[in-house]
Automatic annotation (TrEMBL):
Primary site of residence: membrane
The Major facilitator superfamily (MFS) profile domain, residue ranges: 8-436
Source organism, top-level taxon: Bacteria
This protein's UniProt keywords: Cell membrane, Membrane, Transmembrane, Transmembrane helix, Transport
Protein name: MFS transporter
Annotated TM spans: 46-65, 74-93, 99-120, 132-154, 160-182, 194-216, 222-240, 261-283, 295-315, 327-343, 349-370, 391-407, 413-431
Pfam families (UniProt xref): MFS_1
Membrane association type: Multi-pass membrane protein
SUPFAM superfamilies according to UniProt: MFS general substrate transporter
Keyword ATP-binding included in the entry's annotation: no
Organism: Dactylosporangium salmoneum
Length: 459
């Protein structure tokens, strides 16, 4: 039984890796795509952006849908759609067809991430094993970013541009073949129907906000994207207001009254904003200020990406001996120290140190966010977890990009270090009562209700 669930984790790792890899190989292939399909500038932007838009926009919906119809069922359906969309993208005959295929891939990708994380939470009941499994899951996103440019470059050197979209097809076939055997099904037997007005409001909140953030990052501060951002925030407020009135909400507002959930989710968003935005600015600095080629700049960032993978694997082991609060706060402080090194012009070393500190917050924090929710709501919590990271990254690119344009990378890193230090203090205080990860299902700190009360509760 134990071998079977770890084999199941290996199967779940495949779609997780591909969601990340798909974005990077498309960026690399874009010049070839533009020449072959005669795509103009606007069409090229949509070829790149529509995937991320759909992933961000549908993540919350897909998390709730998996809780209702079954996470394995949704995962396998998404795998089939992702495979079909990959084939359509590879043999697209024009920009419009490729944009449509990429949109389909984005919707399928939005279902893959929360379904895999929700299943991991269900499969690994022992808190130590769950933390290790989440470390593997989180590491796959980084591995996709590391191998994406390499795999894409090799394929483009030997085949036509469409080959980059075929990477995911064998993995999806394998998932469809082994998933029904290795993966358990789980769904909320008492869940009601999906509330479609909530789906519409969630999309109307997330999609304009993401588009506005991208426009602000690309073109600077302007009235149209600010109005679009305001519209997205307004729809988000209406979405939350509707959830409070529903008996079966798409997202349970009571989750945000849980101090562990709210603080950790907010911490993940802020961390994604600061670390992701700094990484983008560093990549640009290496090329523009230091004159490195894209390949050499990528190689300079690779040690940091590998350090983050190492951190994802080490953090669950440390959590057996150190409480989550100090461990997560210590990791965030280590990342802050890395940003200070970047501010002092020790770019590569600082990036490695910063990425090494990522492990505790991402692995243990993800476990806290998903584990704070009732088992029947784990998919929805997983969707929120991923949406916060995606929005944080987009905000980081926009806000830190604007700051870098005025003051440069070193100031951006210094500001990020100060904010991460404040975040470390906050998380240390909020999570201070969480015990070390215990062995066995009877001692799971995530499930202790006394540790998750709101401001008026215990603690």
């Amino acid at each position: 039984m134990k071998v079977r669930k770890w084999a199941g984790l290996a199967v779940l790792a495949l779609p997780t890796l591909l969601v990340s890899l798909d974005m990077f190989v498309t960026l690399l292939a874009l010049p070839s795509i533009a020449r072959a399909l005669h795509a103009d500038g606007v069409e090229q932007l949509w070829i790149i952006d529509v995937y991320g838009f759909m992933v961000a926009g549908f993540m919350i919906t897909m998390g709730g849908l998996g809780d209702r119809i079954g996470r394995r069922r949704l995962l396998l359906a998404a795998a089939a759609v992702f495979g079909a969309g990959s084939l359509a993208a590879a043999w697209s005959t024009g920009p419009g067809m490729l944009i449509a295929a990429r949109a389909v891939l984005g919707v399928a990708g939005a279902a893959l991430a929360p379904s895999t994380l929700g299943l991991i939470t269900h499969m690994f009941r022992d808190p130590r094993e769950r933390a290790a499994a989440i470390g593997v899951w989180a590491g796959c996103f980084t591995v996709g970013a590391v191998i994406g440019p390499v795999a894409g470059g090799l394929l483009l050197a030997r085949f036509w541009w469409g080959a980059v979209f075929l990477i995911g097809v064998p993995a999806m076939v394998l998932l469809l073949a082994l998933g029904p055997w290795l993966l358990p099904e789980y769904r909320d037997q008492a869940a009601g129907r999906l509330d479609f007005p909530s789906v519409g409001l969630s999309l109307a909140g997330v999609l304009p906000a993401v588009q506005a953030i991208k426009a602000l990052a690309r073109d600077g501060w302007a009235l149209p994207p600010l109005l679009l951002l305001a519209a997205g925030l307004g729809c988000g407020w209406l979405f939350l207001r509707r959830q409070r009135r529903l008996a079966e909400p798409l997202v349970d507002p009571a989750l945000f009254a849980d101090r562990t959930f709210a603080a950790t989710l907010g911490g993940l968003l802020l961390y994604a904003l600061l670390s992701g935005g700094t990484m983008v600015q560093m990549a640009q600095h290496l090329q523009v200020a230091d004159g490195l080629s894209p390949l050499r700049a990528g190689l300079a960032l690779a040690p940091g990406m590998l350090a983050s993978v190492l951190g994802f694997q080490v953090a669950p082991r440390l959590a057996r001996r150190v409480r989550p609060g100090p461990l997560i706060a210590g990791g965030v402080l280590l990342s802050a120290a890395g940003l200070l090194l970047i501010a002092g012009d020790r770019l590569v070393l600082g990036f490695v140190v910063s990425c090494l500190g990522t492990g505790p917050l991402v692995t243990l924090g993800t476990g806290l966010v998903v584990g704070s929710a009732p088992p029947e709501r784990a998919g929805a919590a997983a969707g929120l977890n991923q949406t916060s990271s995606d929005l944080g990254y987009a905000l980081g690119v926009a806000l830190l990009g604007s700051l870098a344009a005025v003051t440069g990378l070193h100031t951006v890193a210094a500001v990020g270090a100060a904010l991460l230090t404040g975040l470390a203090v906050l998380l240390a205080i909020v999570l201070r009562r969480l015990p070390r990860l215990g062995k066995g299902t009877e001692h799971d700190p995530v499930r202790d209700p006394a540790l998750h009360a709101g401001p008026g509760g215990p603690g």
